[in-house]
Amino acid sequence: MGYNVAIDGPAGAGKSTIAKLVAKKKGYIYVDTGAMYRALAVYFLEKGIKASETAKITEACKDAEVKLSYKNGIQQVILNGKNITDRLRSEEVGNMASATSAIPEVRKALLFLQKNLAEKEDVVMDGRDIGTAILPNADVKIYLTASVDTRAKRRYKELKEKQISCELEKIKQDIAKRDEQDMNRKIAPLRQAEDAVLIDSSDMTIEEVVEKICSLCK
Ligand code: C5P
Fold this sequence. Notes:
Elements: E1 4-8, H1 15-26, E2 29-32, H2 33-46, H3 54-60, E3 66-71, E4 74-79, E5 82-83, H4 91-100, H5 104-120, E6 123-127, H6 130-134, E7 140-145, H7 148-161, H8 168-184, E8 197-200, H9 206-216
Parallel strand pairs: 1-6, 1-7, 2-6, 7-8
Antiparallel strand pairs: 3-4, 4-5
Helix pairs in contact: 1-9, 2-4, 2-5, 4-8, 7-8
Bound molecules: cytidine-5'-monophosphate.
Cytidine-5'-monophosphate is lined by residues 11, 33-34, 37-38, 94, 97-98, 101, 127-130, 178, 182.
């Protein structure tokens, strides 16, 4: 059994940045589960399927195989044998991932992969339902959040740095919509697990958040 750290929280709370640093410091493997939902979203978009076409998405899940590999310690996402890591971060893909992750077959398609990784390895896994559904017995559970304003500004900066064109107002709307979808869906909605430690990072530096989480780990 691996040592498992679960970090959940809304879009743009800084989960991946923080989780990567914690993983590096502690020597654990970082698993970004959002990237897996994004990979399936890329697949649906490629097939021209709309988020509202549930039956087509359910069917398409049968032909989509998501795998992870690591290149210089950085997670790579392989969709049907092709490395699609550099296509995952756009707003279009994020919005599609949020809409389609509410569909049972989509979640089922990724469940085994996520549980299996955590069983074999020491992991920091980030997502929406890791502490509540995927790893209910995780050794450490964190619910990482920040205000919508803070999160929108961070995502804006992240996209700009990657030279992806974007508008702050639109990102704010997308984040609010994604929160609403992720928190109110029927299966595995985003919520703080009862035994999770709440961290609001609005007024904390990255280092402070990393320190706090590392101090909770073995
Ligand atoms: O974290 P990220 O923005 O990459 O996640 C994209 C979308 O994937 C989220 O908005 C959420 O709907 C979905 N997701 C999920 N469960 C997870 C991780 C991500 O439903 N464990």
